[in-house]
Specification:
This protein is mainly α. It folds into 2 domains: 1-216, no CATH class; 239-432, no CATH class. Helix content is 85%, strand content 0%. It contains 16 helices and no strands. It has helices spanning 2-12, 16-52, 56-91, 99-110, 112-128, 132-155, 165-191, 197-201, 205-238, 241-277, 281-308, 310-314, 321-353, 358-382, 387-410, 415-428. The longest helix has 37 residues, at 16-52. It is globular. Its main location: membrane. It holds the Pfam family MatE. It comes from Sorangium cellulosum. It is found in: Cell membrane.
Length: 432
């Protein structure tokens, strides 16, 4: 996330318009990346369940099935970006003056989707095996390489003028290729899995069905969130370049705040998956409730500190007084948004790990479009509240979904799904 913030800062050295183009193009990229979660999210959960049941062979088969599925998804996404960059930017209502910067950047950075697809699966399996520190070290190396290459490729060196935003894209592609090589090596050294050429292209329908049973609903919720977010972002773009720039800078800070809740949510998912696979449902319940308490305490503390430092943090990106004033107000409104989002991230990951993946999607789709999109239009556009109305809509959506997920967990709606998951893992595992 720090690298993303640093990327926005680098591009803002070119112009505020470049930062707005960069932010919008990256949102399109993130939308495509969410499709990789259909497989990587499902693979992570199913692998933890097999490991909890002490069936290593079943876990390895699921891991291999995830590789080819996401490679094909990555290549397909790369092709769509290459052909449809301009229509996608037009769909997002990007101002015409920003197309010369945004379109070449989007095409260039789209190449990394082929690498990201595989890296998502490789990293998800490593984390499911609890090798989270090794994965962290790998990511730090990858981004260190990206940062080291970004400055000379963007701004030039030894008389060479550099590539501007396209230099940032090239640095990202090189770093992703390095990440793929390192992931492949960690699989061999830490997991003892030697992925063959066949593993990267051959689709395994049997194991893939298990993965998609969790991954399709789970990632479907992410896809719905991303689509609703893109609709809202198009509304923001219609408010003008100043609003789009403010949204881009403020969301860089908000996304950083998300990391704390995401970390607790991912950790909860891994441990709950292991406990469900082992049949320890009471332990899974304690894990979610404890993670929720820790997540809320950390969330409120970090968001409050960020709101107090708002003008200084935004000042790292711009000196525009209008952007600073509105962005600072939005960071205070984030105190309304983030606790609800924390409940979502922790409890939804617990539900998914227990096998209850469809309920969050049903509630999420209704709330994201009826509340987040609907209120953004009503408050932000129709009533003229602007970005303040958008932030109120974000908060209402997160709290409605968060309270629904908490009720589902508290009243044990997940328990029948966890029991079915346990039966499935034992049935598909070691032969009788």
């Amino acid at each position: 996330m720090l690298v993303g913030v640093f990327g926005v800062w680098l591009v803002s050295r070119l112009s505020d318009g470049a930062a707005a183009a960069y932010g919008l193009a990256n949102q399109i990229m993130l939308t495509f990346m969410i499709t990789f979660r259909f497989v990587s999210l499902g693979a992570s959960v199913v692998v933890t369940q097999y490991l909890g049941a002490r069936d290593r062979d079943g876990a390895d088969q699921v891991a291999r099935a995830a590789l080819a599925a996401n490679l094909w998804m990555g290549v397909l996404s790369c092709g769509v970006i290459a052909v449809g960059a301009r229509p996608l930017l037009e769909l997002m209502r990007l101002p015409e003056s920003l197309f010369p910067m945004a379109q070449p950047y989007l095409v260039a950075v789209g190449v990394m989707l082929a690498f990201d697809g595989v890296n998502f699966s490789l990293g998800a399996v490593l984390r499911a095996h609890t090798h989270t520190r090794a994965t962290l070290r790998l990511i730090l190396i990858m981004y260190a390489v990206q940062l080291a290459l970004s400055l000379p490729l963007m701004f030039g060196f030894a008389g060479w003028p550099g590539l501007g935003m396209n230099g940032l894209a090239l640095a990202a592609v090189i770093a992703r290729a390095l990440s793929f090589w390192m992931h492949h090596r960690l699989w061999r050294e830490l997991l003892g899995i030697r992925a063959s050429f066949e593993d990267y292209w051959r689709i395994r329908p049997g194991r893939l069905r298990e993965v998609l049973h969790i991954g399709l609903p789970g990632a479907g919720e992410n896809v719905a969130y991303r689509i609703s977010y893109m609709i809202i972002l198009a509304m923001v773009a219609d408010m003008g370049q100043a609003a789009l720039t403010t949204h881009t800078y403020t969301m860089q800070i908000v996304h950083f705040l998300l990391l704390f809740s995401l970390a607790i949510g991912f950790g909860t998912e891994i441990v709950v998956g292991h406990r469900v696979g082992a049949g320890e449902l009471a332990g899974a319940d304690r894990q979610v409730r404890g993670g929720l308490v820790v997540g809320l305490c950390v969330c409120v503390t970090v968001v409050l500190a960020t709101a107090l430092l708002g003008p200084r943090l935004l000042g790292l990106f711009t000196s525009d007084p209008e952007v600073l004033a509105i962005g600072s107000k939005l960071l205070w409104l984030t105190l309304l948004v983030e606790p609800g989002r924390t409940i979502n991230l922790v409890v939804i990951n617990g539900l998914r790990a227990a096998g209850d993946a469809r309920f969050p999607v049903g509630v999420g789709v209704i709330s994201m479009f009826a509340v987040a999109v609907g209120l953004s239009w009503l408050l932000g556009v129709h009533l003229g509240w602007g970005l303040v109305g958008v932030w109120v809509a974000y908060g209402a959506d997160e709290w409605i979904r968060g309270l629904a997920m908490s009720a589902r967990w508290h009243f044990r709606g997940w328990v029948p799904h966890a029991r079915r998951t346990l039966r499935r893992v034992r049935l598909n595992g070691r032969p009788a």
